[in-house]
Design brief:
Blueprint (H helix, E strand, L loop, with lengths): L8 E16 L4 E14 L2 E8 L3 H14 L7 H11 L8 H20 L4 H5 L6 E7 L6 H14 L4 E5 L2 H4 L2 H15 L4 E5 L6 H13 L2 E5 L7 H10 L3 E4 L6 H9 L5 E4 L7 H13 L3 E4 L3 H8 L5 E7 H10 E2 L8 E2 L12 E2 L1 H4 L6
Parallel strand pairs: 4-5, 4-11, 5-6, 6-7, 7-8, 8-9, 9-10, 10-11
Antiparallel strand pairs: 1-2, 2-3, 4-13, 12-14
Helix pairs in contact: 1-2, 1-3, 2-3, 5-7, 10-11
The structure holds magnesium ion.
Magnesium ion binds next to loops.
InterPro entries: Enolase-like_C_sf, Enolase-like_N, Enolase_C-like, Mandel_Rmase/mucon_lact_enz_CS, Mandelate_racemase_C, Mandelate_racemase_N_dom, RHMD-like
GO molecular function, one term: hydro-lyase activity
Organism: Streptomyces fodineus
Length: about 375
């Protein structure tokens, strides 16, 4: 093809948004969330991508990636992704660099779809129209009333038939309260909705096995990171012992990480985060690894960064409709998706790319870089 469009410019912006109330899971607490936005431009067409990561991520984009990508074909995203991975060799790919690459990669896919005037799902090729979501929040900082209100908001107001709460409070030292909160969650949502829990690696192996039996009594069907996700043997052991699905993968930054997790038999459903693992280019490869083993994939957080790619997967379980990120994406972007009934339909409105546009006047008060 002659006269291929090339990437003319790569830009960054950083937004730090306070949470609506202090949030914590089993092993971390926070009261703000930072979104690093990347824009890539070809002529008058601009694509956007983002990651939830420290502001330093934007610096990595500017210092190590922008010069690497500028001048490349805007149609050849895998080439740009590979060049970026090589450019960060000495900085270290896992972590901030992979998140920086992810944001640029997502922006490049958005740009290409816009250049072709297609929703991104149409460019990738759909395997499904509807992408199931699950409501995710239930922070350990919530009191009973707030947890109940959030859960009923998903199940009763929005019709989402699956929800997740955090457990493993204070590194697993509040197990009694964890189980009380799970029982209250079941009472809030009734028997018809699925109940998931996420310990964020807060339990020890034996503790997770004992808690797992109690969680099974509440009909919990998803036990995420019962132990730290690097402990693949413990995950595999819990997977064999417990009736519910054992899941992990949100801290995967490279393709071999996911291969090791799958090869260890550590998960029933593989979680992968498109904003961490190197973008849509790598996320699709992660899904192929899982598909080859008969394992489903669930998109971790950042739902609007995942939705179009998720619709391209034959082995998609669902996306995480994460309270903190949904709130930020609704604040910063026009074109957000409606999870009513328990799924989103990316590309249904025909808008090109991810279908998102930054609303500058709403975003500007939160801009820190
Ligand atoms: Mg998690």
């Amino acid at each position: 093809m002659r006269d291929r469009p090339t990437v003319d410019d790569v830009g960054t912006a950083v937004y730090t948004v306070p949470t609506d109330t202090p949030e914590a899971d089993g092993t971390l607490a926070w009261d703000t969330t930072t979104l690093v936005l990347v824009t890539v431009r070809t002529g008058t067409t601009t694509g956007l991508g983002y990651t939830y990561a420290p502001a330093a991520t934007a610096h990595v984009v500017r210092e190590l990636l922008a010069g690497t990508v500028t001048g490349l074909s805007a149609l050849d995203v895998p080439r740009a992704n590979e060049r970026m991975c090589r450019a960060v060799r000495n900085a270290g790919l896992p972590g901030v660099a992979a998140q920086a690459i992810a944001a640029v990669d997502i922006a490049l896919w958005d740009l290409k779809a816009r250049l072709l005037d297609l929703p991104l799902v149409a460019l990738l090729g759909a395997a499904r129209d509807d992408v199931p979501v699950y409501g995710s929040g239930g922070f350990t900082t919530y009191d009973a009333e707030r947890q109940d209100r959030q859960l009923r908001g998903w199940t009763e107001d929005e019709g989402i038939p699956r929800v997740k709460i955090k457990i493993g409070e204070s590194w697993g030292t509040r197990e009694t309260r964890d189980l009380e909160r799970v029982a209250r969650a079941r009472a809030s949502i009734g028997d018809a909705a699925e109940l998931y829990v996420d310990a964020n690696g807060g339990y020890t192996g034996g503790q997770a096995a004992r808690a797992g039996d109690a969680l099974a009594d509440q009909g919990v069907t998803w036990f995420e990171e019962p132990v730290p996700s690097d402990h693949l043997i413990q995950l595999a052991d819990l997977r064999r012992r417990l009736p519910m699905d054992v899941t992990a993968g949100e801290y995967g930054y490279t393709l071999p990480y996911f291969e090791h997790m799958l090869a260890a038999g550590a998960v029933d459903c593989l979680q992968a985060d498109v904003t961490r693992c190197g973008g849509i280019t790598v996320w699709l490869r992660v899904a192929a690894l899982a598909h080859a083993r008969g394992i489903d994939v669930s998109g971790h957080c950042a739902p609007h960064a995942h939705a179009h790619a998720a619709a391209a997967l034959p082995n998609l379980r669902h996306l995480e409709w994460f309270h903190d990120h949904v709130r930020i994406e609704r604040l910063l972007f026009d074109g957000v998706l409606d999870p009513g009934g328990g799924s989103v339909t990316p590309g249904a409105d025909g808008a090109p790319g991810l279908g998102l546009s930054l609303v500058a006047e709403r975003a500007e008060p939160y801009r820190v870089q």
